[in-house]
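Supplementary Note 3. Input sequence used for the single-chain structure prediction.
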Amino acid sequence: LILNLAVPFGIQAVVHVLRTDAIRSERDQLTGLLNRRAFHRRARVLLESLRDEFGHLVITVIDLDRFKQLNDFYGHTRGDEALVEVARALRDSTGDTAVIGRSGGEEFVIADGWHPDEVSERAQQLCDAIAALPFDITASIGTAGAHPDHRVYKSGDLIAALIVAADDAMYVAKRRGGNQTGHHKAPIPPRSVS
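The predicted structure, written as discrete structure tokens, is reproduced below.
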């Protein structure tokens, strides 16, 4: 009788621990956002759903301006607090469909289905939300979008191409002084020259 009760309970406890570990392994420990690997996996799922709905996938890359100065002047604890609050601001400023990750250091990435006409406004909302935080930091934000056409790109390839394009747009915004947005305008995939 004890064995019949103990074994199922033991198995259930092990499954719970493994499920908890699997969830933790997908998350950045500091911010609770997805890590890079989990971001790519979830972005591919989002991309497939947008293909079914004829949606438009937008990748947004966010890099914090003057973050090194914050760490140097106030210490890493204050820098960590800022990262946690930026993560919260990103969650609060996006919809339920957004896939949000911390790609490293003070850089974040978002995948979501946005209408092409609202990309600039949404990116500016993210920029404003970060600037409003009490840490004297701003963000340079780059976006790139495409209609997910499976005939042209595999899911992972399209996401990678959009991340590179959004990253390029983010660096243009940063070179212009930061605290602003940029959008990759060239078509993805590029039109072939015939």
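The mean pLDDT is 86. The two ends are 77 Å apart (CA to CA).
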